[in-house]
Amino acid sequence: MMEPRGRVARMMAPPARSVADDFRWGRKLGQGSFGVVYEVYRKACGRRFVVKQCNMRRMSRAEQEEAITEVHLLASLRHEYIVQYHDSFISAGQLNIVMEHCAGGDLATKLAELRRRGQRLPEASVWRYLLQLASALRFVHNEKILHRDIKR
User: How far apart are CA 76 and CA 39, in angstroms?
Assistant: First the structure.
């Protein structure tokens, strides 16, 4: 089992305020190349979040350092069209990133549902989403951040 150690362990920040037992774990919302996303509820207040879990055991030391750097980056971003970071912690070899829950889901899911029903996204919605995306991209680019995870 590879746990973060040395430089990677020292890089952990911001300090975790949460542990896995702070949440009631709900359904799996999705899975990508770097992790699994779950719906969770904070037991203390009932508030809904999502937790992205990344298996640190499967990562090289360089990948672990990159994951921790990305957590730092997420923690620093504040923009109305960027999913809000809330906390992160490591438990059982998993990096857990606690983020706001987006009740409307993601755009890809919305588009797939419309396509399944033989419908199209109204033009006004296309413009609204385009402007939101452009605003968020402008923000990250102004912060000298290159976003490598824009979905098609």
Answer: 23
Residue with tokens 């899911």: 109
What pLDDT score does 27 carry?
Answer: 95
pLDDT band at 105 (very low <50, low <70, confident <90, very high): confident
Q: Return d(Cα 145, Cα 47) in angstroms, integer.
A: 30
Q: Supply φ then ψ for residue 71, to 5 degrees.
A: -65, -45
Active site (catalytic) residues: 149
Cα 81 to the center of its chain, rounded Å: 13
DSSP the chain: -----THHHHH--SPP---GGGEEEEEEEEE-SS-EEEEEEETTT--EEEEEEEEGGGS-HHHHHHHHHHHHHHHH---TTSPPEEEEEEETTEEEEEEE--TT--HHHHHHHHHHTT----HHHHHHHHHHHHHHHHHHHHTT--------
Length of the chain: 152
**pTM, entire model:** 0.80
Tell me: the pLDDT tens digits for 43-94?
A: 999 999 999 999 999 889 998 898 888 899 899 999 999 999 999 999 999 9
